[in-house]
Amino acid sequence: MNYKIVADSSCDLNEALKEQLNIKLVPFKIDVDDKKFIDDEEMNTMELIDAMKNSPNPVRTSCPSPGDFVSEYRKADNIFAVTISGQLSGTYNSAVLAKDMIQEEEPEKFVHVFDSRSASIGETLVAMKIQELIEKQLNNFEIVEKVESYINGMKTFFILESLDNLIKNGRISRTKGLIANVLNLKPIMGSTDNGEIKLVENVRGTKKAFKRLIEIIGETGEKFEEKILAISHVNAFERAEELKNEIQDKYNFKDIILVKTAGLSTAYANDGGIILVF
């Protein structure tokens, strides 16, 4: 049987992962004022960052349509789709509707859609788990069961260098954003069990925030030797590399991967943002 993994473009990849995974990304569309971006391999994220910095308005994103997913679902007999958290976007609903559409045409086709309840590198880890289980030749229903269990155990955290996009999009008030800037507060954010964004802690200063994030890994995780930790960054390679090295020194993860964000994750996390999932 032939298999394919389909994900939206929140799933951030590096060149090694692109070669490793049998995956196709369905792009988001991103608008900043009159500038329009398609979140594919040709997109220039630095142009997006500059556009966001120069605009007083919120970034607008459009999720892939059901038709976009249907086009990819046609390309294999067995499809596993992964989407950004359904609490953050309508992409999961779009992918499920596409499943219903394609199975009306081809009732024998297998399609399952996973809500990652995460974003960015969290989606990537889910796709990697699917690929691992396919290569072990598990049947489709075993893959679904084990991947859903994997998603239930994932931890997602992120630190934003800039709160501008959260303020512009109304996720925090301008007053709270001003106070955070004046006090040099760096919020450590995370995901709830159902994939919503939550505040984990407010920490004063960037260095202290990243030190505290490393401590939180130990407080919230276990059996690190069985897990892969993934870090994605928005134009912050040196900081992400330093974080990776410090985590390697403290914990015995099976592997740690480092990835640069593509368009959608860049729009969410903004310049300097770091996302960490394990």
Automatic annotation (TrEMBL):
Entry keyword annotation includes Transmembrane helix: no
Q: Which domain of life is it from?
A: Bacteria
For this UniProt record, the keywords arranged alphabetically read as follows: Lipid-binding
Tell me the Pfam families matching this sequence.
Answer: DegV
Presence of keyword Cell membrane: no
NCBIfam families linked: DegV (TIGR00762)
Q: What is this protein called?
A: DegV family protein
Organism this protein belongs to:
Tissierella carlieri
